Every structure is written in C-alpha cells, then in structure tokens.
C-alpha cells in the first residue's frame, strides 16, 4: 500500500514531521511558498498541515485533487475556506486547546506592557536616555478587565486576571449566569462592559457578528483612559477609529497581536504613543508549538491511515458501522441547530433534542452532537460534534435528549427546542426517502424547506400582496430567489417566509425589508 503523503506548508515544530513518519506517512516540509507554487504542488498530497500563513483558498482546493485532510496546528481556521473544503470532501481539523494557555498569557503580558509602557521605556533606556521621569504607569490591582469572549482563552485570561486581584466583567452571549458565577466574573452586556472596563481584551473568533465589534461607535462608549488588547483576530477592532481615539487622548493605550491585514508591514497605528504590537505571536511559545504540532500530526496521521476522526470541524466522529445510517441525520441535526442558533441564540439556558420514528432507533448521541455543533457554530470556530456537548456542559447549557416510541406523522423526525428569555422555541425536521434533510416546522408553524446556503427569514402578518412586495424588493436589489417556502398559523395571522437566495442579502436590503408593511422580523441566514 502506498503511504499517504503530507505537506507541512507553514513553520511548525519538527515533532510534527517526526510523528507523521512514525505513523506511516511520507512528509515534505516546504514553507514560504507563493499561492501559485502551492497550487502547482498540492495535487500530490493527501494531507496539508498548516498554521496561519497558508491561506487555503478555493483555488488551492480546486488544485488539491488528492487532498483528504487539512490540519491546522492551532485554533483559528479563518485561513481555510471550510465550506468549500467540505464541498470537496476534505476534512478540516484543528487543535482546539493546545495553545490556549500560551495565548492567554500573551494577552496578560500585553496588559502589563501597556500598564507600565515597558516597550517604550526599554527602547529609551537602551538609547541611553535614562527616562526616569518620562513614564508613569497604572496598577492593575483593583481595576476592571472587560473580557469580550469567555471561551477557552477568555476564561484562562479571566482566571489569571482574578489572580491579579482585578475585577472581570465578561460579554459573551453564550456565557450562562451559572458559568459566569463559576468563573468568578460579572456577566454584562457589551455597553455595560464598555462603560466599566479599565482594560478590554478580546477573545472571540472573527465572525459576521464579531467583525468590528469594537467599532468607532463602540470605542466611543469606552471609559476615558481605557487600554485595549487584541490577541484574537484582526478585524474585531476598527483600527482607524482606534488611532483617532488614541490621538484624541480618549484611549490611553492599545496592544495588538493581530491586524486586519497580515502581515501588517505598515499601519497608521505604528508610532502612535502607547501603541504596542507583536506580529501574531499569541501562540508562539515552545510549549504551545510542541502541543499543537504533536496533536495535529497525530490526528491527521490517524485519519489518513485508519479513518479515525478527531477534532474535525466539518465532519462528525463516527464508527464505520454507524456512519452510513447516521450521516443524513447529522446533516439534518446540524441544520436545525444552526437555525435555532441563528434565530434564538441570546441567553439560551436549555435545549431539548427529541427523536421519533426511525430516528428513535438510532444512537442519539451523534445527533445531539450535531445539533449542538450547529447551534454553537455561531459563536465558535472550534466547535465540532465531538467537543460541542462538552462545551455546552461547560457553559451550563442544560441539554436534554428525549426518545419517543410513538409514531408521528413523519416516518422520522428530529425536534429541537431551546429555552430563551421569550419562552421555548422549537424547530423540527425530517428526512426524505433519499436522505435529504427537510425543515417541517419552525416556531410552531408548519413549513417545508431545505436549509442550505444563503437564506432570508421573514415573519410577517399574513396579507394579500406581501409576497409580491418582497419578491420585487429582492429583484430590485439584483438578488435571485432560488426557492420560496411559506407557512402560517392561520389566515391573516402570523406567517413565515423562508427564501433561498443566490447571493447574500445585504444589510441595506434587510433594512428595506423591515419597512415593508406587515413585517415583524427579518433575518439573513446562512447554512453550510
Ligand atoms: N493570537 C494568536 O496567536 C491566537 C489567537 N487565537 C484566537 O483567539 C480566539 C478565541 O479562541 P478560543 O478562546 O479558543 O475560542 P472559543 O471558541 O473557545 O471561544 C470563543 C468565545 O467567543 C464567544 N463569542 C462568539 N461570538 C461572540 C460575540 N458576538 N460576542 C462576544 N463573544 C462571542 C463564544 O461564545 C466563545 O465563548 C479565536 O479567534 C482564535 O483564533 C487563538 C490562539 C492563538
Ligand atoms: O499558529 C499561529 O502562530 C497562530 C495561532 C492562532 O492564531 C490560532 O491558533 O488561532
């Protein structure tokens, strides 16, 4: 049997190559190539091991005719086009915990560097200036740290900050009150955090919801003299606004490990007093790099040589026997979870996953895992079926599995009900004979729809002419409708419109749709 071939295309601890070889793979380490060079080479490989420099684009995936697995030695996978990789049947794995402590420590290091202006004091001292009176720092003891994102890294930062006798205020829509108490932090909304924090540190993935979370407007809501740290992803902060507010003296300091454009070889922020930065070094310690290199190589080699799947972001972990039966259910479950996650995600306290008919004869755990992964994908890049139940538990989400013996109107059905501040909200779906997943009910309204790609969700008051108005509005915006699904509680009552569209619905179109008479709710949805 020919050995699987793996390419390591980013600088990685040598342990990775050693493990690949020990586990029966041929490995090449070729770093620093241009995209064109990688495109020319990638067709030879079964596996691609990367960190953050290699951008796995559609063009690279198109050229990767043998590729079976991409392994990210690290957490963030925003440099991989996961939907496209999934479409090509390429498994994408990461190492969700290997560099968390190291990155949290970098955030704390930057916080101290800001509080005591260490980089500038060091530079001036070594320049022979002995600037004893030029620097007046601040203590962190007793200060409030605003934590945006309280996942793996955020919670480690919180524990370190509490050890430094700081108060920690956390904003994370997925943080339950119970988990906040367990972490010893105060759960707050974003505005409260912005108003209270002396230091703000970001630990979210970059998603459509977190992009620009520290926008010009939000930066303007911060306390005068705030110091800001970003060791998560560029794009979370409006860099131009940060510069303006630092120049205006409102923001006392900022430390960025990550930039909107990387490598950041120039930036208006460079040279700004009390601005410090590092070149995406959050994960750069010997310990973290050994951890992630060993883990990624173990996982990828196992997949390539035995088919075992660990920490995949786009594929469930399954035994060979269960896989074919459960596969269509996973797709259905993931989409139902994603739907409730997109429509009813704030302050979720509980979730129930019910199966009936043919679904009740199967192992329910993978179905539950897929629902939770779909739900939490709105908040975390690293969630997958394997770690979703664990993360849900850690965050205090009460997960209930119910198996009904009764026969319902569908031969098989999965129902997902979440507890929200507005009460319980439930969606349900079935499988067609060919295994295609279908939504059959949304928040108590019967509807039949395929959940795929870009969609538009509208709740309205049922009235003649409404559908025409929405069709015209989308047509004017050049958005082509793929499929059209309708449901209503009763004639003239609450109705739901679910459209699949050939291009994403822009904010401007959503805003215009909200002005159409009879509209109650409008949301753009996205499914993988
Ligand atoms: N600078 C570096 O070298 C490194 C950066 N990172 C980055 O750090 C980030 C966090 O990583 P982890 O803690 O492991 O991820 P995680 O998935 O454990 O935690 C992310 C947290 O963000 C929260 N979140 C999602 N949307 C939010 C929103 N709109 N507002 C507030 N919170 C929101 C989630 O609920 C979750 O608790 C990722 O972007 C990762 O790529 C990770 C390692 C190294
Ligand atoms: O590999 C690196 O140095 C970057 C790590 C990172 O950003 C991540 O794991 O998300």
UniProtKB/TrEMBL annotation:
<dbReference type="InterPro" id="IPR029009">
    <property type="entry name" value="ASB_dom_sf"/>
</dbReference>
<dbReference type="GO" id="GO:0051287">
    <property type="term" value="F:NAD binding"/>
</dbReference>
<dbReference type="InterPro" id="IPR036291">
    <property type="entry name" value="NAD(P)-bd_dom_sf"/>
</dbReference>
<feature type="domain" description="D-3-phosphoglycerate dehydrogenase ASB">
    <location>
        <begin position="325"/>
        <end position="442"/>
    </location>
</feature>
<dbReference type="GO" id="GO:0006564">
    <property type="term" value="P:L-serine biosynthetic process"/>
</dbReference>
<dbReference type="Pfam" id="PF00389">
    <property type="entry name" value="2-Hacid_dh"/>
</dbReference>
<dbReference type="Pfam" id="PF02826">
    <property type="entry name" value="2-Hacid_dh_C"/>
</dbReference>
<comment type="pathway">
    <text>Amino-acid biosynthesis; L-serine biosynthesis; L-serine from 3-phospho-D-glycerate: step 1/3.</text>
</comment>
<feature type="domain" description="ACT">
    <location>
        <begin position="456"/>
        <end position="516"/>
    </location>
</feature>
<dbReference type="Pfam" id="PF19304">
    <property type="entry name" value="PGDH_inter"/>
</dbReference>
<dbReference type="InterPro" id="IPR029753">
    <property type="entry name" value="D-isomer_DH_CS"/>
</dbReference>
<keyword id="KW-0520">NAD</keyword>
<feature type="domain" description="D-isomer specific 2-hydroxyacid dehydrogenase NAD-binding">
    <location>
        <begin position="108"/>
        <end position="282"/>
    </location>
</feature>
<feature type="domain" description="D-isomer specific 2-hydroxyacid dehydrogenase catalytic">
    <location>
        <begin position="6"/>
        <end position="314"/>
    </location>
</feature>
<dbReference type="InterPro" id="IPR002912">
    <property type="entry name" value="ACT_dom"/>
</dbReference>
<dbReference type="InterPro" id="IPR045865">
    <property type="entry name" value="ACT-like_dom_sf"/>
</dbReference>
<dbReference type="InterPro" id="IPR006140">
    <property type="entry name" value="D-isomer_DH_NAD-bd"/>
</dbReference>
<comment type="similarity">
    <text>Belongs to the D-isomer specific 2-hydroxyacid dehydrogenase family.</text>
</comment>
<dbReference type="GO" id="GO:0004617">
    <property type="term" value="F:phosphoglycerate dehydrogenase activity"/>
</dbReference>
<dbReference type="InterPro" id="IPR045626">
    <property type="entry name" value="PGDH_ASB_dom"/>
</dbReference>
<keyword id="KW-0560">Oxidoreductase</keyword>
<dbReference type="InterPro" id="IPR050857">
    <property type="entry name" value="D-2-hydroxyacid_DH"/>
</dbReference>
<comment type="function">
    <text>Catalyzes the reversible oxidation of 3-phospho-D-glycerate to 3-phosphonooxypyruvate, the first step of the phosphorylated L-serine biosynthesis pathway. Also catalyzes the reversible oxidation of 2-hydroxyglutarate to 2-oxoglutarate.</text>
</comment>
<protein>
    <recommendedName>
        <fullName>D-3-phosphoglycerate dehydrogenase</fullName>
        <ecNumber>1.1.1.95</ecNumber>
    </recommendedName>
</protein>
<keyword id="KW-0718">Serine biosynthesis</keyword>
<dbReference type="Pfam" id="PF01842">
    <property type="entry name" value="ACT"/>
</dbReference>
<dbReference type="InterPro" id="IPR006139">
    <property type="entry name" value="D-isomer_2_OHA_DH_cat_dom"/>
</dbReference>
<keyword id="KW-0028">Amino-acid biosynthesis</keyword>
<dbReference type="InterPro" id="IPR006236">
    <property type="entry name" value="PGDH"/>
</dbReference>
């Amino acid at each position: 049997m020919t050995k699987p071939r793996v390419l390591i295309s980013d600088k990685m601890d040598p342990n990775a190559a050693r493990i690949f070889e020990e586990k029966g793979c041929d490995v090449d380490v070729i770093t620093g190539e241009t995209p064109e060079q990688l495109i020319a080479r990638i067709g030879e490989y079964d596996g691609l091991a990367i960190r953050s420099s290699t951008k796995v684009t559609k063009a690279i995936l198109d050229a990767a005719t043998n590729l079976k697995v991409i392994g990210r030695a690290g957490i963030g996978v925003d440099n991989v086009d996961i939907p496209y990789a999934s479409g090509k049947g390429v498994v994408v794995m990461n190492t969700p915990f290997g560099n968390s402590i190291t990155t949290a420590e970098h955030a704390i290091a930057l916080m101290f560097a800001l509080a005591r202006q260490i980089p500038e004091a060091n530079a001036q001292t070594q320049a022979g200036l002995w600037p004893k009176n030029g620097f007046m720092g601040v203590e962190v003891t007793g200060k409030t740290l605003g934590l945006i994102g309280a996942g793996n890294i955020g919670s480690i930062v919180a524990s370190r900050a509490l050890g430094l006798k700081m108060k920690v205020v956390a904003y994370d829509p997925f943080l339950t009150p119970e988990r906040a108490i367990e972490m010893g932090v105060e759960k707050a909304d974003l505005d409260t955090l912005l108003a209270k924090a002396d230091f703000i540190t970001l630990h979210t993935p970059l998603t459509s919801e977190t992009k620009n979370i520290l926008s010009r407007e939000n930066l303007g809501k911060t306390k005068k003299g705030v110091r800001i740290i970003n060791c998560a992803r560029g794009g979370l902060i409006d860099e131009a606004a940060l510069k303006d507010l630092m120049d205006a003296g409102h923001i006392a300091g900022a430390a960025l490990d990550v930039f909107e454009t990387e490598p950041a070889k120039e930036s208006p922020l460079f040279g700004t007093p009390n601005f410090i930065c590092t070149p995406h070094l959050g994960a750069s310690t010997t310990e973290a790099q050994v951890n992630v290199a060993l883990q990624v190589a173990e996982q990828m080699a196992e997949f390539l040589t035995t088919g075992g799947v660990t920490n995949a972001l786009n594929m469930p972990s399954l035994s060979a026997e269960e896989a074919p039966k459960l596969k269509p259910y996973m797709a259905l479950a993931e989409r139902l979870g994603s739907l409730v996650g997109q429509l009813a995600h704030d302050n979720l306290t509980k979730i129930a996953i019910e199966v009936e008919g043919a679904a009740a004869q199967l192992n329910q755990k993978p179905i539950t895992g897929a629902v939770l992964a779909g739900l939490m994908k709105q908040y975390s890049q690293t969630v997958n079926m394997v770690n979703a139940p664990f993360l849900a538990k850690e965050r205090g989400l009460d997960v209930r599995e119910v198996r009904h013996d009764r026969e319902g109107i569908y031969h098989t059905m999965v129902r997902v009900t979440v507890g929200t501040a507005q009460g319980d909200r439930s969606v349900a779906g079935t499988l067609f004979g060919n295994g295609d997943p279908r939504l059959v009910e949304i928040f108590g309204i019967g509807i039949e729809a395929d959940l795929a790609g870009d969609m538009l969700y509208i709740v309205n008051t049922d009235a003649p002419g409404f559908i025409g108005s929405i069709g015209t509005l989308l047509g004017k915006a050049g958005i082509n409708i793929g499929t059209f699904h309708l449901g209503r509680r009763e004639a003239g009552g609450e109705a739901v419109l679910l459209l699949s569209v050939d291009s994403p619905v822009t904010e401007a179109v959503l805003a215009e749709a909200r002005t159409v008479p009879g509209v109650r709710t409008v949301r753009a949805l996205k499914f993988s």
